[in-house]
Prior knowledge:
The complex is a heterodimer. By secondary structure, chain A is mainly beta. Chain A has no helices and 13 strands. In chain A, strands 2, 6, 7, 8, 11, 12 and 13 form a 7-stranded mixed β-sheet that branches. Chain A has a 4-stranded antiparallel β-sheet with strand order 1-3-10-9, with no helix packed on it. Chain A starts with a strand and ends with a strand. By secondary structure, chain B is mostly beta strands. Chain B is 0% helix and 50% strand. Chain B is built from no helices and 11 strands. In chain B, strands 2, 4, 5, 6, 9, 10 and 11 form a 7-stranded mixed β-sheet that branches. Classes of the chains: A mainly beta, B mainly beta. Chains A and B meet through strand 7 and strand 12 of A and strand 9 and strand 10 of B.
Amino acid sequence: DIVMTQSPDSLAVSLGERATINCKSSQSLLYSSNNKNYLAWYQQKPGQPPKLLIYWASTRESGVPDRFSGRGSGTDFTLTISSLQAEDVAVYYCQQYYGTPYTFGQGTKLEIK
Amino acid sequence: QMQLQESGPGLVKPSETLSLTCTVSGDSITNYYWSWIRQPPGKGLEWIGYIYYSGSTNYNPSLKSRVTISVDMSENQFSLKLNSVTASDTAVYYCAPGQGGGWFDPWGQGTLVTVSS
């Protein structure tokens, strides 16, 4: 199985400041034939299902605010919220879909400082 | 717009079989691979497996011996059966379609299944 490891486990950031969450995979998620990284990011608020934010490591889902961005390649990826808003308080997960079983990171809890 | 709704018993006894159904509206069940994902209370996400409308399946090896996913095209539904459950199977169970390369969107609201006598 591909192991996904996120850091940090929790993060407190002031409103308006930048938040960065890291995700590392145990093997490369870059598929050479199409040069795409098979990685997605989700946001989960309490009592709600996860919501897709980003796929292909850096493609923002329709309707997701542009303060959310994803980057990285191979085994190292980041999700950045450029200017934290109160509604961004949530747990964030990365997920690899390079191969089955699909696997998720353990989650990063983002709070307001 | 696609919507998904999980349904089934919220309480299952140890050693019995957990059975859930996901009803899809707003799109055809023939258009995607359909997954079950679970989340124990306060913990992370675990992919259980997926099915295609043809009946082709792919299960997480960690659960493969106990899982069956089936599809009912006439009802636009797919189902999960997990047998020989224990307390560690207590979780919120979600259904979701696999998009593009394999991300999940949208998700059902989820249903909590508690395994307890």
